[in-house]
Specification:
alpha/beta; Enolase-like, domain 1; Rossmann fold; 2 domains; 7-stranded mixed beta sheet; 10 strands; about 20% strand; Heavy-metal chelation domain-containing protein
Length: about 240
């Protein structure tokens, strides 16, 4: 399997090469990058930000967007998030959906694996699924260490994978346990709205439609609860 972030980068590269970075916000919950094409967001792994007074070595406003997008390949989680947010600023695919994911996908009576902890989704689908297994690095109640995923994912009817796995380069680790990509849902605001990615599952992501509001929310320490007013839900169905 080709490295998925490479496929996503290649899809976006033609649109990035002539653009510059206009602004960026490194927020507590999400990182936003604004280019001349719009804005994109990606999750901030804030525990991974290096110590010291500066999150980055230098400002990158005015830099070529394609060069900044290459940071998605970095092993540094903040640099990778900045790179992914830059890519997300130009990816504008999928159809707008105000529906909850449970209205798009039939979860009734299914065994579901969830990679990454989405509390609102857990509350939404737990009453209707047969079994729900949540794999999470943080020690949240009723979650499992991701190391157990290889035992459960092959037995699951639906596999939800957080878009944050594109930042920490673990997406393929979990996809390797899936026997049918039509079972897969990539979920969350970090998820790239990439047509290439839809070969590997349904995408349930977001597009920044109100750049100024989203920048304001993130600059004030807001997360998804505050930021979502500036986003539009998008769906790309697997094929």
């Amino acid at each position: 399997m080709k490295l998925l972030v490479k496929e996503i980068f290649e899809e976006a590269s033609d649109r990035l090469k002539d653009l510059k970075i206009l602004d960026y916000i490194i927020g507590l919950g999400y990182t936003l990058v604004e280019t001349e094409a719009g804005a994109g967001v990606a999750y901030t792994f804030r525990d991974s930000i290096p110590g010291g007074c500066n999150a980055t070595d230098d400002f990158f406003v005015g830099k070529n967007a394609m060069e900044v997008a290459k940071w998605v390949f970095s092993n540094g989680l903040l640099e990778s998030a900045i790179g992914l947010a830059t890519i997300n600023s130009v990816l504008d695919n999928g159809y707008s959906s105000n529906e909850d994911i449970s209205e798009v996908i039939d979860f009734n009576g299914k065994t579901v694996s969830m990679v990454g902890y989405f509390k609102p989704i857990e509350n939404l689908i737990k009453p209707i699924v047969k079994e729900l297994y949540i794999f999470e690095l943080k020690n949240y109640p009723d979650t499992f260490n991701p190391g157990y995923a290889k035992l459960i994912i092959p037995k699951s009817d639906i596999v939800i994978i957080s878009g944050t796995t594109f930042i920490n380069k673990t997406t393929e680790d979990f996809l390797n346990f899936v026997d049918d990509y039509k079972k897969v849902i990539f979920l969350g605001a970090s998820t790239p709205l990439s047509t290439a990615l839809s070969k590997y599952g349904t995408l349930a992501g977001s597009k920044v439609i109100d750049v100024n509001y989203t920048k304001y929310a993130l600059s004030k320490g807001g997360g998804m609860k505050l930021m979502k007013k500036g986003l539009e839900r998008r769906i790309i169905r697997s094929y």
